[in-house]
What we know:
The protein is an alpha/beta fold and 166 residues long. 19% of the residues lie in helices and 27% in strands. A 5-stranded mixed beta barrel has the order 1-2-3-4-6. The longest helix has 12 residues, at 24-35. The two termini are 29 Å apart.
Amino acid sequence: MKKFTDLKIGRQINFSGIVYTARxxxxxxxxxxxKNRNKLPIDLKGAIIYYCGPTRTPKGKVIGACGPTTSxxxxxxxxxxxxxxxxxxxxxxxxxxxxxxxxxKYQAVYFLxxxxxxxxxxxxxxxxxxxxxxxxxxEAIYKLEVKDFPLIVGIDAKGRNIYGKK
Length: 166
C-alpha cells in the first residue's frame, strides 16, 4: 500500500486501490484483538480504513450507498491502529488532538470525502467483499476495491489540519 506522506492538507486526489470499511464496533473489536494478542482479520500495515457502513446492496449493483460517517467516533481507537501500521483513514469531520498527534507520529493521513453523497460514492466501488464481523451487518468490515474515489487531505502526515488547530 502506498504511503501518503507527501500529500499536503487540502490536496484532492482520486484514489484507486483497496480500502476497508470499519466503524465503531469493528474498531472496538480490532483494538480488543490487539490487546489480547489475537490475529487481526486484516493486515493494518499500509491499510486504509473508510469509516463507512454501506446500505443494502440494490439488485444489479456492487454496493449500496456508502458515504462517510463522523470520524471522531473512532478517535479512542485510532492511535492504537496507527501504531500497528494503519496508513490512512477516510471519513468526515475533525479529529481530536490525540489522533492528530498520532497521525503525525506514525506518518499517516486522514482523508475526507463527500458527506451526504453515499449513492454517488457507490459508483467508485468496483468490488465489495465481506472480511470480518458479519454479525455487525452493514458495520462489518468489508474490503472495497475502488477506482478514482474522490478524497481530500484533511490532516497530513505533518499534523497540519484543514480544520485548523484543535
